[in-house]
Amino acid sequence: MSGSGRGAVAALVVSHDGARWLPVVIDALRSQTRAPDHVVAVDTGSRDESADLLDAAFGPVVPAPASTGYPEAVRRGVAELGPEVEWLWLLHDDSTPDAGALEALLAAADEHPEADILGPKLREWPSLRRLLEVGVTISGTGRRETGLERGEYDQGQHDEVRRVLAVNTAGMLVRRRVLEDLGGLDDRLPVFGNDIDLGWRAAAAGHTTLVVPQAVVFHAEAAHRGVRRTALTGRHTHFQERRAALFTLLVNVRSRALPLQVVRLVLGTVLRVLGFLLVRSVGEALDELAALLSLGGSAGDVRRARRERRARATAAPQEVRRLLAPPWLPYRHGLDAVSDLASALTDQAADVAERRRAAAAERDPTAYAARTGTRRAVAEDDEDEDVPEDSSFVARFLTDPVAVVLSVVVLALLVATRAGLGQAVGGALAPVPDSVGAWWGLHLETWHPLGQGTAVPAPAYLLPLALLATLLGGSPGAAVTAVLLLAAPLALWGAWRLLRVAGRLASVRGAPRWLLVWGSVSYALVPLTSGAWGEGRIGPVVTTALLPWAAHAALGFADPVPDRRWRAAWRLGLLLALLTAFTPTAWPVAVLLVAVVVTVVVLVLPGAARDRSTWLPPLTALAVPLALLAPWWVGSLRRGAAEALLLDPGRLPAAEPSGLQLLAGRLTDTGAPGWLGLVLVALALLALVPRTTRAAVLLVWVVALVAVLVALALSLVRLELSVGAAAPGVAAPLAVLVGALVTAVVLGGVGAREVAARPLLVGLGVVAAVVPVLGLGWAVLADDRLGDELAADVPAYMVQRSELGPEHGILVLRGDVTGGLEHTVRRGDGTTLGEDEVLALSGEDADLTATVRELVSAPTSDTVARLGELGIEHVVLPAPADGDVAAGLDAAGGLVQASAADPGTRAWQVDEPLSTQALESGTSPLHVVLLVLQGVTLVVVLVLCAPTRERRRRR
After folding, report:
1. Residue 279 to residue 282: CA distance in whole angstroms
2. What is the mean pLDDT of residues 534-550?
3. d(CA 101, CA 115)
4. Is 149 inside any structural domain?
5. Where is the chain membrane-spanning (predicted)?
6. Which of 157, 353, 406, 904 is deepest in the core (most CB within 10 A)?
7. Same domain, yes or no, for 16 and 145?
């Protein structure tokens, strides 16, 4: 027996590949002011000299296999002790106790005889001053809570002996009898979480756990930090920790609270997965999900563990509850996570700015020093001015002409696009459906009940529109309105960013702000001046808005750091997928541009071909759209609708600009005067004159020529559709061409600023100002076709009937016998945005065509019966109805005349059974696989595009 009538104290050290820490741990044990009466060492299959060190210090070591968990190792060590041992002092091979640690723990045990488990204050090893734990508990989300701030140093602020839920097994002093009565540490928690579980079980059984801050143990946390990997932890430490936390909560929570706890953990896991993905911690996100799924497959272990704990629980539930973390704590951690994400974004922006400053200083140190010195002097002068603090922002804004002009331009752009407010429809823009579910259904379905049914996939742009509409509250109209209103301001912003970087690449002084204003405004007007906006062609509008952002991302390929080149690849791939979704010809343009750039780089720098990080990121960016848009392009090829890969969105006929119109940046005759665009071409040619920027301008002209070549190649192609011939879309080449011309002018202006005389610069500036000023004025005053939707020629009651199901179709016959008749079948609420492309690409239904031919020539009762079998309930002949066709339909058996609101319109109802299976079809497994691929790729690409949060761990 030891002093004060207390039984013996045995130190139990468990080791696994801990030779790097054990010499210090052994010395610390030997230097204790109150030495343990016994020391037992257990080694779990160490491959280093750990067992030899322990054997030399304390005698024979208890061996155990490498797969032995910590609870089993402790059990083996206790089995070696005699009955005189009352207290067990548990130590890890990476935990070094201070010289007075054991003495302080035993003194607290004498002072608090009710205590059965005592633990020290843990400080970080090797820093020695940073606090790790002063007692520990767990929150309702499974987070290990220490009550400490991040990186908090020990200044004696937590030196009060107090009751806690649990203490770490690194330095835990526990009564042997209590440990055995509780069944020891749980073998189902082999590495992590067994300390909290033991403390929770002890509290439920009426035992007391105290933290004794006067006892100090320094802990390296080798397993938690990933410094040491074992067969039990593997490479996924976070998985093991999270699984242990979930298990601890589920087996110890009260039965009444278990269902709510399960729901909370499932929802919390989903949120944590999303949070980790936002900061590109993919491994931790997968570990979170895997931990939840793994625990779901171990329901039997959870039930058995709960029965064991109920059998030993004697304390009132409120006694344990007050030792748990407060319920509001997880919400504070959520705010911290948002703060971490904001910090990651801020750090990334600061990193980009720092790299730009460093690049500028490297290119021209003298000019950079002069420029920054001048700015510093101006800033110091500004500090001496007496400007009211509350009006500084307004004062700076009103005294900055560039800011004022840009604000006026944005307001003018919003006025020019005012027709996009509300339910925009007209021209090439079809009406939107009533709910976003129609878009999701069209995207996910293998077979669409349109016309006589079709398997042609939904257009690729429908997915981003559906996502946007979902974010805006499920309103498709709000999504289209947002696109139409924000496209031009977004293009303005993107062009400003791109041109500013391009100007700095051309000259260390960069482009003057007024030149940036000219370039960004001129480019932002392209959706309007080209005629695309007024015609309701949403594809060119979106492409023009996204193109400068994609070009800015592509500049990341010139970054010297491979990781940044890869991040640029994922961002460009995502933007290129969006561009291709709205204008499919954007992908071949990008392929040609990448081929040209990579070829030039390899010719100029032959060694670059051997560096995969030089050419592989651009190729990856080209491959991303193929994976993201696989359901669309694979389905189009399978269903004989390859024309979809070349058509721009919108109703047919597509725009067919002439060569001169294309050069002037015009898609249709409804655009701004063509000579405004030709002024831009002339200015881009003059940009070749300044010698200092000629090389950069020539490179931009190469991009423009690639766009011209693609447009010429597309002009030679005719697409034969069931509704007639159509021309491929040229919106993507046109946007690239105009963007290249604007960039050339800006770069030429940077060069001319340094060499040209001032009067010449003023004259050229006046000529150049004509492009944005007149273009903006035209955009504000011009008329557009939005809102010019044709009046409905189908009676309203028939439309209501058609919405009851696909079998209530409406056959609409237009034209006359002399000029030819056209037939369409309307189902549901009519042809909405996205459905018009599907119908145009669907092949002709031979059965329906033959039936209609018989119906208008020599209708019989069998012909009318086939209409019912085809799911057609009504036949409509809009005004002016052909008298011969109407007379034949009047005489047809099985057709009953129906009312029509327009006197010139004739209508009939099919008085035959309607087939409910005419448009039914199965699901394509390949389409389902492609949708899954699309979803997984989208998540992966979004994660890889996100800012990185690096977790640096001391080793």
Report:
1. 8
2. 91
3. 17
4. yes
5. 465-493, 514-532, 590-608, 615-634, 672-689, 696-719, 725-748, 760-781, 926-946
6. 406
7. yes
Amino acid at 609: A
Angle in degrees, CA 575, 577, 580, rounded to 5: 110
Token digits of residue 911: 């008085």
812 and 758 fall within a common domain: no
For the record, the structure tokens of 418 come out as 């005012």
- Smallest CA-to-CA distance from 625 within 546, 704, 731 is with 546
- On whether the CB atoms of residues 93 and 18 are closer than 8 A, the answer is yes
pLDDT tens for residues 877-927?
888 888 888 888 888 888 888 888 777 788 888 888 887 676 666 678 898
Question: Are 94 and 221 contacting, i.e. CB atoms less than 8 angstroms apart?
Answer: yes
| Separation between Cα atoms, residue 653 and residue 655, nearest integer Å | 7
Percentage of residues of the chain with pLDDT beyond 70: 88
Q: Do both 841 and 743 map to the same domain?
A: no
The C-alpha R_g of the chain, in whole angstroms, comes to: 37
Place of tokens 């190792």: 73
β-bridge pairing 38-44 and 62-64: parallel
Residue 20 structure tokens: 């790097």
Which structural domain, as residue segments, surrounds residue 381? Answer: 333-385
Asked if residues 911 and 896 have their Cβ atoms less than 8 Å apart, the reply is: yes
Domain CATH for 138: 3.90.550.60
φ, ψ for residue 92 (rounded to 5)? -95, 165
Short-list 30, 144, 12, 27, CA closest to 81 = 12
Number of domains in the chain: 4
Contact 22, 15 (CB under 8 A): yes
DSSP string covering 248-300: HHHHHS-GGGHHHHHHHHHHHHHHHHHHHHHTT-HHHHHHHHHHHHHHHTTHH
808/382 Cα distance (integer angstroms):
74
Identify whether the C-beta of residue 543 lies closer than 8 Å to the C-beta of residue 731.
yes
Q: Which residues fall within 8 angstroms of residue 510, CB to CB, at 6 or more apart?
A: 500, 503, 504, 750
Q: Are residues 68 and 202 in the same domain?
A: yes
- At position 271, the amino acid (one-letter code) is L
Distance CA 538, CA 465 (A): 11
Last residue within a domain, chosen from 781, 804, 819: 781
The answer for 435, left when phi > 0, alpha when psi is -120 to 50, beta otherwise, is: beta
Q: What is the DSSP string of 108-157?
A: HHHH-TTEEEEEEEEEETTTSSBEEESSBEE-TTS-EE-S--TT-B-SST
* 874: exposed, middle or buried (Cβ count in 10 Å: 0-12, 13-18, 19+): buried
Q: Are residues 739 and 811 in the same domain?
A: no
CA angle 764, 765, 771 (to 5 degrees): 100
| Same-domain check for residues 602 and 736 | yes
Do 682 and 574 belong together in one domain? Answer: yes
Alpha-carbon distance values, 199 to 119, 184, 239, 669 (Å): 11, 11, 22, 79
With respect to residue 260, please indicate whether it lies within any of the assigned structural domains: no
Residue 58 domain flag? yes
Length of the chain: 955
Regarding whether 807 and 777 lie in a shared domain, the answer is no
User: Do 811 and 868 contact (CB within 8 A), yes or no?
Assistant: no
Handedness of CA 761, 763, 765, 767 (dihedral sign): negative
Among residues 878, 893, 910, which one ends one of the domains?
910
Average pLDDT score over residue span 201-217: 94
End-to-end CA separation in angstroms for the chain: 41
Contact yes or no for 816/882 (Cβ under 8 A): yes
Q: Looking at the domain assignment, is residue 820 inside a domain? A: yes
Bridging pattern class, strands 895-898 and 872-877: unpaired
227-236, 365-374, 776-785: lowest mean pLDDT where? 365-374
Report whether 793 contacts 902 (CB < 8 A). yes
User: What pLDDT, on a 0 to 100 scale, did the predictor assign at position 382?
Assistant: 39
Burial of 507: CB neighbours in 10 Å, binned 0-12, 13-18, 19+ = buried
C-alpha separations of 14 from 50, 219, 829 in Å = 10, 14, 73
Token duo for residue 183: 């069944």
